[in-house]
Amino acid sequence: xxxxxxxxxxxxxxxxxxxxxxxxxxxxxxxxxxxxxxxxxxxxxxxxxxxxxxxxxxxxxxxxxxxxxxxxxxxxxxxxxxxxxxxxxxxxxxxxxxxxxxxxxxxxxxxxxxxxxxxxxxxxxxxxxxxxxxxxxxxxxxxxxxxxxx
Length: 150
Prior knowledge:
mainly alpha
């Protein structure tokens, strides 16, 4: 049981780290849609569908910020949710576990879209791709899966 909770705690830390960073980064982009607060020029968005960072900031803040932070608490409490269960592709697993998998893939998708839009790679992209892989790897460990099996 200790290895189960230790592995789960690593997943919680990863999701919490992602959430806090995305809330800070997304919040900065919402407050400063020009990107000035984060030292990001608007020219980065030339090949994107956005004219400023406001919409990307909202997406970052909510999808990779608020959602993973709520998921941390849900993973601890394992609440029931009929709505979440409807989009739970792994019917033998609690929806919170499935949503941690979804979060890993959402982060990979977000980073991939960023690299396409800015036509480049920054060291942070590599860092967050590795974080996404780590989230998926830890969530898929048998110790974690066993905690969330129905």
